[in-house]
Amino acid sequence: MLTKNLTVTEMDDTGKGLALIADLSKVDNDNDGYAKGAFAWKEQWAQLLTAHNLNMIPFGKARIFEDGDFAFAELHLNLEVQAGREWHSALKFDLANGSPIQEWSYGYTALEFERVFRELRKGRILKKVDVHEVSTVVRGAGTTTGTLSMKNLKAQLKDGEFDAVINHLGEMADTLKGDPGLLSATGRKQLGEIHAALGVALIDPAEAEAKANAAIEHEVTRHLTRDARMRLGV
Fold first, then answer.
1. Backbone angles phi, psi at 229, to 5 degrees
2. DSSP letter at 108?
3. Above pLDDT 70, what percent of the chain?
4. Which domain covers residue 191, as residue numbers?
5. Which pLDDT tens digit goes with each residue over 20-76?
6. Has residue 127 been placed in a domain?
7. I want to staple 71 with a disulfide (CB 3.0 to 4.6 A). Which of 39, 194, 196, 212 is the partner?
8. Rounded to 5°, angle at Cα 151 from 150 and 155
9. Do 72 and 163 touch, CB atoms closer than 8 A?
10. Is residue 189 part of a domain?
C-alpha cells in the first residue's frame, strides 16, 4: 500500500468535513499525474484511521469522489466513539486557530498507471486508484525527498554527493533503452545540455591543453605549407 498527502479544508459540528486529495490537472510531489476518472472508476469509501494503524477501530469513514479537476474525500467522523469525538475537537480547533498544522495522508493502491519521465525523474500517470484508508499523521507521507532537480544539483556536486545523481541517471538510461519515447521534448533538450556540460567537465585539463596545442600546430603547418606552395607556384 502506498500513501500520499491530503488537505482537510472543512469540518462542521456534526463531524462532517471535506479533504482535498488531488488536483488532477497537476503533477504532485511524487512526480505523479492523474487521468480523469482515476478516483471515480467506482463508488469508493475508506476508513478513517490514526497513523495508518489498521489494528485500531476506525473513527469514521470517507467517501472518495471527483469534481471537475479535483478529487476529494468527504469525511464522516463517528462521534459515537471516543476517538471520533477527540479528533473532531482537535480538528475544529486546528482549523479555527491560525494556519492548520494537522497533516493527513491516505493509503492507496495504483491499479492502473503509465510510467513516464518528467524533469529527468521517474513518474506515473495514475489511471485507476483504489483508496483504502484516510489517516491523521504527524507528518504526511507520500512525498519523494532527495529527487534529482537542476536547482539543487550544483550544491550536491560541491558537497561531493555524486551517488544519488549517478543512480538516477543510470536508472533513467536503463528505462529509456526499452522505450525512448518516454522522454519528452523538454527532457531531450535538458539531457543534451547536461551531455554538453559533462563533456567539458570530464576533459582532463592536460589533455585539453595538448589537444589545443596540436590544433594550433596543425593550423600553423597548414598555413606555412599553403604559403610555400604559392611561392613555388605549385
1. -65, -35
2. E
3. 61
4. 150-202
5. 888 999 998 889 999 999 999 999 999 999 988 888 899 999 999 999 999 999 999
6. yes
7. 39
8. 100
9. no
10. yes
Is 96 among the domain residues? yes
Whether 190 is in a domain gets the answer yes
Amino acid at 201: A
Closest CA relative to residue 149, chosen from 189, 175, 171, 118? 118
Nearest-10 crossing angle of helices 150-158, 163-178: 130
Q: Is the pLDDT of residue 182 over 80?
A: no
Residues 129 and 170 in one domain: no
Long-range contacts of 84-90 (CB under 8 A, 24+ apart): 84/15, 84/59, 84/60, 87/48, 87/50, 87/59, 87/60, 87/136, 88/11, 88/15
DSSP state, 101?
A: -
Q: Are residues 60 and 175 in the same domain?
A: no
pTM over 0.85: no
In this structure, are 20 and 82 located in the same domain?
yes
31 and 96, same domain (yes or no): yes
Question: Per residue in 124-173, pLDDT tens?
Answer: 999 999 999 999 886 543 332 211 222 333 344 444 445 545 655 666 67
Q: What DSSP string runs through 177-189?
A: HH-GGGS-HHHHH
Closest C-alpha to 72, from 18, 150, 153: 18
> Are 174 and 62 members of one domain?
no
Q: Average pLDDT in the 191-203 region?
A: 63
